[in-house]
Amino acid sequence: MASRRQHKVAELLHEEISQLIQYDAQDPRLGFVTVTGVEVSPDLRQARVYFTTLDDTAVAETLAGLASASGYFRRQLAQSLSLRYVPELTFKLDTSLEYGLHIDRLLDAIQEEERETSEDEASEDEASEDEASEDEASEDRASENSFNEAGAKE
């Protein structure tokens, strides 16, 4: 369970690293990078920075660019933050968005299957209702015929 201090430092690092990537980084490999989250170790010496990129084909290049710029980011963080130790930054690709989309697709598929089965059951119910109403109609006709025949005999 992360402490309150860890959350505060993580939020602060998230904001600062995002600003550094957006405005100060000169590396062209960092063009379309978005920082999605930061996790800080309990001793505040290590930080995992999660990122996404718009260009899925250049993830390895982006990761290499972030790794090469981590020293620059730490130096800038040390100047702007009042922390005793600036955490060592490790960058990881955030796959939670892809995982969430995968789960959504699975749920949509399940919902579509349920719709199809309920439509099939509804059509079967209608067919059985039609058969039942035809049986009732034939029974009604038979009872009318027997009633008419009984009335004719009298």
Labels describing this entry:
3 helices, alpha+beta, 154 residues, single chain
What does this structure look like?
- By secondary structure, this protein is of the alpha+beta class.
- Helices cover 66% and strands 14% of the residues.
- It contains three helices and three strands.
- The chain has helices spanning 4-24, 59-80, 96-153, and strands spanning 33-40, 46-53, 88-93.
- It has a three-stranded mixed beta sheet with strand order 1-2-3, with helices on one face.
- The longest helix has 58 residues, at 96-153.
- The mean pLDDT is 83.
Q: In whole angstroms, how far apart are the ends?
A: 94 Å
- Low-pLDDT windows of residues: none
Which whole number gives the mean pLDDT? 83
What gross morphology would you assign? elongated
Question: Helix share of residues?
Answer: 55-70%
- Report the β-strand fraction as a percent range: 5-15%
Main sheet record? 3 strands, mixed
Radius of gyration: 34 Å
Structural class: alpha+beta
Strand line-up across the major sheet = 1-2-3
> What's the tally of helices?
3
Q: Report the count of strand segments.
A: 3
- Report the order of strands and helices: HEEHEH
What layout of secondary structure does this protein have?
Blueprint: H1 4-24, E1 33-40, E2 46-53, H2 59-80, E3 88-93, H3 96-153
Parallel strand pairs: 2-3
Antiparallel strand pairs: 1-2
